[in-house]
Amino acid sequence: MKDRIIFATETSCDETAAAVVVNGRKVLSNVISSQVEIHREYGGVIPEIAARKHLEAINFVINEAKEKAGIEFKDVTAFAGTVGPGLVGALLVGLNAAKALSLVYEKPFMGVNHLNAHVCANYLESDFEPPFICLLVSGGHTRLIRVNSYESHEVLGETLDDAAGEAYDKVARLLGLPYPGGPYLDKLAQQGDRNRFKFPEANVGGFDFSFSGLKTAVMRTCRAYAGKEMPKADIAASFQEVVSETLIKKTLRAAEVYDTGKIALSGGVAANSEVRRKFFSRENNDFIVHAPEFRFCTDNAAMIAGAAYFGSSITKDLDIEVFSRDK
Ligand code: KG4
Ligand code: ZN
What we know:
Blueprint (H helix, E strand, L loop, with lengths): L4 E6 L4 E8 L3 E9 L1 H5 L6 H23 L8 E7 L3 H17 L4 E5 H7 L11 E6 L4 E6 L5 E6 L5 H11 L7 H8 L22 H13 L7 H26 L4 E5 L6 H8 L7 E3 L3 H4 L4 H9 L3 E2 L12
Parallel strand pairs: 1-4, 4-5, 6-9, 9-10
Antiparallel strand pairs: 1-2, 2-3, 5-11, 6-7, 7-8
The protein binds 5'-O-[(R)-(carboxyoxy)(hydroxy)phosphoryl]adenosine (KG4) and zinc ion (ZN).
The site of zinc ion (ZN) has 5 residues, from helix 4.
Protein backbone atom coordinates (compact mmCIF):
# COMPACT_ATOMS: atom_id res chain seq x y z
CA MET A 1 0.00 0.00 0.00
CA LYS A 2 1.17 3.54 -0.75
CA ASP A 3 2.49 5.52 2.23
CA ARG A 4 0.08 8.11 3.61
CA ILE A 5 1.93 11.31 4.48
CA ILE A 6 -0.07 13.59 6.79
CA PHE A 7 0.93 17.21 7.36
CA ALA A 8 -0.67 18.57 10.56
CA THR A 9 -0.89 21.80 12.51
CA GLU A 10 -1.79 22.27 16.20
CA THR A 11 -2.52 25.63 17.87
CA SER A 12 -5.09 24.82 20.56
CA CYS A 13 -3.29 26.55 23.44
CA ASP A 14 0.16 28.13 23.71
CA GLU A 15 2.22 25.95 21.37
CA THR A 16 2.42 26.66 17.62
CA ALA A 17 3.16 23.27 16.10
CA ALA A 18 3.41 21.54 12.73
CA ALA A 19 4.50 18.00 11.90
CA VAL A 20 4.80 15.45 9.13
CA VAL A 21 3.96 11.82 9.97
CA VAL A 22 3.93 8.76 7.71
CA ASN A 23 1.22 6.12 8.25
CA GLY A 24 0.37 7.45 11.72
CA ARG A 25 3.63 6.27 13.28
CA LYS A 26 6.82 7.46 11.60
CA VAL A 27 7.54 11.07 12.55
CA LEU A 28 9.48 12.89 9.79
CA SER A 29 9.33 16.24 11.57
CA ASN A 30 7.77 17.65 14.75
CA VAL A 31 8.27 21.41 15.10
CA ILE A 32 7.02 23.23 18.21
CA SER A 33 7.32 26.94 18.92
CA SER A 34 6.37 27.56 22.53
CA GLN A 35 4.88 30.79 23.87
CA VAL A 36 5.51 29.78 27.47
CA GLU A 37 7.99 32.60 28.11
CA ILE A 38 5.43 35.19 26.98
CA HIS A 39 2.59 33.88 29.15
CA ARG A 40 4.84 33.25 32.16
CA GLU A 41 4.77 36.87 33.27
CA TYR A 42 0.95 36.65 33.54
CA GLY A 43 1.03 33.29 35.37
CA GLY A 44 -1.18 31.63 32.73
CA VAL A 45 -2.21 31.70 29.07
CA ILE A 46 -3.82 34.95 27.86
CA PRO A 47 -6.06 33.85 24.91
CA GLU A 48 -5.77 37.08 22.89
CA ILE A 49 -1.98 37.06 23.11
CA ALA A 50 -1.87 33.35 22.27
CA ALA A 51 -3.88 33.88 19.06
CA ARG A 52 -1.68 36.79 17.98
CA LYS A 53 1.53 34.87 18.64
CA HIS A 54 0.24 31.85 16.67
CA LEU A 55 -0.36 34.17 13.72
CA GLU A 56 3.20 35.44 13.92
CA ALA A 57 4.72 31.95 14.17
CA ILE A 58 2.53 29.69 12.02
CA ASN A 59 4.11 30.27 8.59
CA PHE A 60 7.62 29.81 9.92
CA VAL A 61 6.65 26.66 11.85
CA ILE A 62 4.88 25.14 8.83
CA ASN A 63 7.85 25.83 6.58
CA GLU A 64 10.27 24.39 9.14
CA ALA A 65 8.18 21.19 9.44
CA LYS A 66 8.19 20.77 5.65
CA GLU A 67 11.96 21.41 5.37
CA LYS A 68 12.89 19.11 8.26
CA ALA A 69 10.73 16.31 6.84
CA GLY A 70 12.44 16.71 3.45
CA ILE A 71 9.17 16.66 1.55
CA GLU A 72 7.28 18.94 -0.83
CA PHE A 73 3.65 19.87 -0.20
CA LYS A 74 2.69 18.02 -3.39
CA ASP A 75 3.87 14.76 -1.72
CA VAL A 76 1.38 15.20 1.15
CA THR A 77 -1.63 12.83 1.23
CA ALA A 78 -3.79 15.09 3.44
CA PHE A 79 -3.55 18.22 5.59
CA ALA A 80 -4.89 18.08 9.15
CA GLY A 81 -5.54 20.61 11.91
CA THR A 82 -6.96 20.66 15.44
CA VAL A 83 -10.66 21.57 15.58
CA GLY A 84 -10.97 21.62 19.39
CA PRO A 85 -11.18 21.60 22.32
CA GLY A 86 -9.00 24.63 22.96
CA LEU A 87 -8.86 28.41 22.79
CA VAL A 88 -11.08 29.46 19.90
CA GLY A 89 -8.90 32.31 18.60
CA ALA A 90 -5.81 30.15 18.85
CA LEU A 91 -7.42 27.11 17.16
CA LEU A 92 -8.55 29.23 14.19
CA VAL A 93 -4.96 30.01 13.21
CA GLY A 94 -3.72 26.42 12.83
CA LEU A 95 -6.99 25.08 11.46
CA ASN A 96 -7.29 27.76 8.78
CA ALA A 97 -3.66 27.20 7.79
CA ALA A 98 -4.39 23.47 7.29
CA LYS A 99 -7.56 24.27 5.33
CA ALA A 100 -5.71 26.76 3.11
CA LEU A 101 -2.91 24.27 2.37
CA SER A 102 -5.46 21.62 1.42
CA LEU A 103 -7.20 24.02 -0.97
CA VAL A 104 -4.00 25.30 -2.56
CA TYR A 105 -2.48 21.84 -3.06
CA GLU A 106 -5.83 20.19 -3.82
CA LYS A 107 -5.45 17.52 -1.14
CA PRO A 108 -8.02 16.32 1.43
CA PHE A 109 -8.47 18.27 4.66
CA MET A 110 -8.95 16.56 8.04
CA GLY A 111 -10.18 18.23 11.24
CA VAL A 112 -8.96 16.43 14.36
CA ASN A 113 -10.16 16.31 17.99
CA HIS A 114 -7.26 17.26 20.26
CA LEU A 115 -8.19 14.68 22.94
CA ASN A 116 -8.29 11.78 20.48
CA ALA A 117 -4.94 12.99 19.22
CA HIS A 118 -3.44 12.71 22.73
CA VAL A 119 -4.52 9.04 22.72
CA CYS A 120 -2.96 8.53 19.25
CA ALA A 121 0.36 9.95 20.55
CA ASN A 122 0.86 6.40 21.83
CA TYR A 123 1.23 5.11 18.26
CA LEU A 124 4.03 7.54 17.31
CA GLU A 125 7.43 5.88 16.84
CA SER A 126 5.91 2.73 18.31
CA ASP A 127 4.03 -0.41 17.31
CA PHE A 128 1.54 -0.10 20.19
CA GLU A 129 -2.00 -1.15 19.21
CA PRO A 130 -5.56 -1.16 20.62
CA PRO A 131 -7.39 -2.41 22.58
CA PHE A 132 -6.25 -0.65 25.77
CA ILE A 133 -7.38 1.65 28.56
CA CYS A 134 -5.97 5.15 28.16
CA LEU A 135 -5.44 7.58 31.01
CA LEU A 136 -5.45 11.04 29.44
CA VAL A 137 -4.05 13.62 31.84
CA SER A 138 -3.39 17.07 30.43
CA GLY A 139 -3.67 20.72 31.45
CA GLY A 140 -7.28 20.91 30.32
CA HIS A 141 -8.55 17.33 30.68
CA THR A 142 -8.46 14.20 32.79
CA ARG A 143 -10.17 11.22 31.28
CA LEU A 144 -10.22 7.45 31.36
CA ILE A 145 -10.89 6.16 27.86
CA ARG A 146 -11.53 2.64 26.67
CA VAL A 147 -9.85 2.38 23.29
CA ASN A 148 -11.54 -0.58 21.65
CA SER A 149 -10.03 -0.02 18.21
CA TYR A 150 -8.35 2.78 16.26
CA GLU A 151 -11.74 4.27 15.44
CA SER A 152 -13.68 3.55 18.61
CA HIS A 153 -12.93 5.51 21.80
CA GLU A 154 -15.36 5.27 24.73
CA VAL A 155 -15.06 7.79 27.60
CA LEU A 156 -15.39 5.90 30.90
CA GLY A 157 -15.00 8.89 33.20
CA GLU A 158 -13.53 12.35 33.51
CA THR A 159 -12.81 15.09 35.97
CA LEU A 160 -15.79 16.82 37.54
CA ASP A 161 -13.78 20.01 38.18
CA ASP A 162 -10.04 20.68 37.73
CA ALA A 163 -7.92 18.65 35.32
CA ALA A 164 -4.85 16.96 36.82
CA GLY A 165 -2.48 19.33 34.99
CA GLU A 166 -4.57 22.30 36.08
CA ALA A 167 -4.28 21.17 39.71
CA TYR A 168 -0.51 20.84 39.26
CA ASP A 169 -0.30 24.34 37.80
CA LYS A 170 -2.48 25.90 40.52
CA VAL A 171 -0.62 24.21 43.39
CA ALA A 172 2.71 25.14 41.77
CA ARG A 173 1.56 28.74 41.76
CA LEU A 174 0.78 28.54 45.49
CA LEU A 175 4.34 27.32 45.98
CA GLY A 176 5.70 30.25 43.98
CA LEU A 177 6.89 28.14 41.03
CA PRO A 178 6.94 29.49 37.44
CA TYR A 179 4.20 28.76 34.87
CA PRO A 180 3.45 26.07 33.74
CA GLY A 181 4.10 24.61 37.16
CA GLY A 182 3.73 20.86 36.51
CA PRO A 183 7.35 20.09 35.57
CA TYR A 184 8.73 22.41 38.32
CA LEU A 185 6.52 20.81 40.97
CA ASP A 186 7.59 17.38 39.73
CA LYS A 187 11.24 18.33 40.28
CA LEU A 188 10.68 19.95 43.67
CA ALA A 189 8.65 16.96 44.91
CA GLN A 190 11.63 14.68 44.35
CA GLN A 191 13.37 16.36 47.31
CA GLY A 192 10.32 16.25 49.59
CA ASP A 193 8.67 13.90 52.07
CA ARG A 194 5.45 12.56 50.53
CA ASN A 195 4.15 11.45 53.93
CA ARG A 196 4.53 14.78 55.70
CA PHE A 197 1.00 16.03 54.86
CA LYS A 198 -2.09 13.88 54.54
CA PHE A 199 -4.03 15.63 51.80
CA PRO A 200 -7.50 14.25 51.04
CA GLU A 201 -8.22 11.98 48.10
CA ALA A 202 -11.56 12.82 46.46
CA ASN A 203 -14.24 10.25 46.90
CA VAL A 204 -16.05 10.28 43.56
CA GLY A 205 -17.79 7.26 42.15
CA GLY A 206 -17.13 5.29 38.98
CA PHE A 207 -14.29 6.43 36.79
CA ASP A 208 -14.70 10.16 37.39
CA PHE A 209 -12.08 12.34 39.08
CA SER A 210 -12.05 15.49 41.20
CA PHE A 211 -9.01 17.53 42.14
CA SER A 212 -10.44 20.82 43.40
CA GLY A 213 -10.83 19.65 47.04
CA LEU A 214 -7.20 18.56 47.06
CA LYS A 215 -6.14 21.93 45.64
CA THR A 216 -8.14 23.72 48.39
CA ALA A 217 -6.55 21.55 51.10
CA VAL A 218 -3.09 22.44 49.78
CA MET A 219 -4.10 26.11 49.74
CA ARG A 220 -5.14 25.93 53.42
CA THR A 221 -1.84 24.32 54.36
CA CYS A 222 0.11 27.00 52.47
CA ARG A 223 -1.88 29.73 54.24
CA ALA A 224 -1.11 28.18 57.62
CA TYR A 225 2.54 28.90 56.87
CA ALA A 226 1.95 32.61 56.15
CA GLY A 227 4.87 34.58 57.55
CA LYS A 228 6.81 31.36 58.22
CA GLU A 229 9.05 29.30 56.01
CA MET A 230 6.88 26.96 53.93
CA PRO A 231 8.09 23.34 53.56
CA LYS A 232 7.53 23.59 49.81
CA ALA A 233 9.16 20.33 48.77
CA ASP A 234 7.14 18.33 51.34
CA ILE A 235 3.89 20.01 50.23
CA ALA A 236 4.75 19.28 46.60
CA ALA A 237 5.61 15.63 47.33
CA SER A 238 2.48 15.10 49.46
CA PHE A 239 0.28 16.66 46.76
CA GLN A 240 1.91 14.60 44.02
CA GLU A 241 1.44 11.44 46.06
CA VAL A 242 -2.34 11.93 46.22
CA VAL A 243 -2.66 12.79 42.52
CA SER A 244 -0.56 9.86 41.33
CA GLU A 245 -2.28 7.42 43.72
CA THR A 246 -5.72 8.55 42.51
CA LEU A 247 -4.70 8.19 38.88
CA ILE A 248 -3.26 4.70 39.26
CA LYS A 249 -6.10 3.42 41.45
CA LYS A 250 -8.83 4.48 39.02
CA THR A 251 -6.89 3.20 36.02
CA LEU A 252 -6.20 -0.20 37.61
CA ARG A 253 -9.88 -0.48 38.49
CA ALA A 254 -10.85 0.23 34.86
CA ALA A 255 -8.36 -2.40 33.69
CA GLU A 256 -9.94 -4.89 36.08
CA VAL A 257 -13.56 -4.08 35.18
CA TYR A 258 -12.85 -4.19 31.43
CA ASP A 259 -10.52 -7.13 31.80
CA THR A 260 -7.55 -5.69 29.99
CA GLY A 261 -3.87 -5.81 30.84
CA LYS A 262 -2.95 -2.99 28.47
CA ILE A 263 -2.71 0.58 29.74
CA ALA A 264 -1.58 3.74 27.96
CA LEU A 265 -0.78 7.15 29.39
CA SER A 266 -1.15 10.41 27.49
CA GLY A 267 -1.16 14.19 27.92
CA GLY A 268 1.28 16.51 29.65
CA VAL A 269 0.98 14.91 33.10
CA ALA A 270 2.01 11.57 31.55
CA ALA A 271 5.48 13.17 31.55
CA ASN A 272 5.37 13.29 35.38
CA SER A 273 8.12 11.19 36.96
CA GLU A 274 6.03 9.85 39.84
CA VAL A 275 3.03 9.00 37.64
CA ARG A 276 5.35 7.13 35.27
CA ARG A 277 7.18 5.40 38.14
CA LYS A 278 3.94 4.20 39.74
CA PHE A 279 2.53 2.86 36.48
CA PHE A 280 5.69 1.26 35.12
CA SER A 281 6.53 -0.40 38.44
CA ARG A 282 3.31 -2.44 38.03
CA GLU A 283 4.39 -3.90 34.71
CA ASN A 284 4.60 -7.66 34.41
CA ASN A 285 3.82 -10.34 31.82
CA ASP A 286 0.07 -9.72 32.06
CA PHE A 287 0.16 -5.99 32.53
CA ILE A 288 1.64 -3.75 29.86
CA VAL A 289 2.06 -0.02 30.36
CA HIS A 290 2.79 2.29 27.46
CA ALA A 291 3.50 6.02 27.37
CA PRO A 292 4.46 8.26 24.46
CA GLU A 293 7.98 9.69 24.32
CA PHE A 294 8.16 12.88 26.42
CA ARG A 295 8.03 15.12 23.34
CA PHE A 296 4.73 13.51 22.30
CA CYS A 297 3.12 13.75 25.79
CA THR A 298 2.72 17.53 25.80
CA ASP A 299 0.99 19.35 22.94
CA ASN A 300 2.45 18.66 19.50
CA ALA A 301 1.26 18.34 15.91
CA ALA A 302 2.63 14.81 15.30
CA MET A 303 -0.22 13.40 17.40
CA ILE A 304 -2.72 15.39 15.28
CA ALA A 305 -1.27 13.80 12.14
CA GLY A 306 -1.46 10.39 13.84
CA ALA A 307 -5.11 10.85 14.75
CA ALA A 308 -5.89 11.98 11.19
CA TYR A 309 -4.29 8.82 9.85
CA PHE A 310 -6.01 6.44 12.28
CA GLY A 311 -9.32 8.14 11.66
CA SER A 312 -10.64 8.47 15.19
CA SER A 313 -13.31 11.19 15.24
CA ILE A 314 -12.10 13.18 12.24
CA THR A 315 -14.08 15.44 9.98
CA LYS A 316 -13.36 16.14 6.33
CA ASP A 317 -15.79 19.03 6.11
CA LEU A 318 -14.00 22.27 5.17
CA ASP A 319 -16.85 24.23 6.78
CA ILE A 320 -16.15 22.73 10.22
CA GLU A 321 -15.96 25.35 12.98
CA VAL A 322 -13.56 25.31 15.92
CA PHE A 323 -14.96 24.52 19.39
CA SER A 324 -13.71 25.31 22.88
CA ARG A 325 -15.18 22.39 24.84
CA ASP A 326 -15.61 18.73 24.00
CA LYS A 327 -19.25 17.65 23.99
O1 KG4 B 1 -1.12 17.99 27.17
P1 KG4 B 1 -0.62 19.33 27.50
O2 KG4 B 1 0.66 19.79 26.85
O3 KG4 B 1 -1.66 20.45 27.19
C1 KG4 B 1 -3.03 20.31 27.26
O4 KG4 B 1 -3.63 19.76 26.31
O5 KG4 B 1 -3.56 20.75 28.30
O6 KG4 B 1 -0.47 19.37 29.08
C2 KG4 B 1 0.05 20.48 29.76
C3 KG4 B 1 -0.04 20.19 31.24
C4 KG4 B 1 0.30 21.40 32.10
O7 KG4 B 1 -0.68 21.52 33.10
C5 KG4 B 1 1.65 21.02 32.68
O8 KG4 B 1 1.91 21.61 33.94
C6 KG4 B 1 1.52 19.52 32.79
O9 KG4 B 1 0.86 19.14 31.61
N1 KG4 B 1 2.82 18.85 32.90
C7 KG4 B 1 3.23 18.18 34.00
C8 KG4 B 1 4.54 17.72 33.74
N2 KG4 B 1 4.89 18.11 32.47
C9 KG4 B 1 3.81 18.80 31.96
N3 KG4 B 1 2.60 17.95 35.15
C10 KG4 B 1 3.27 17.24 36.09
N4 KG4 B 1 4.52 16.78 35.92
C11 KG4 B 1 5.19 16.98 34.77
N5 KG4 B 1 6.44 16.52 34.62
ZN1 ZN C 1 -3.16 18.78 24.95
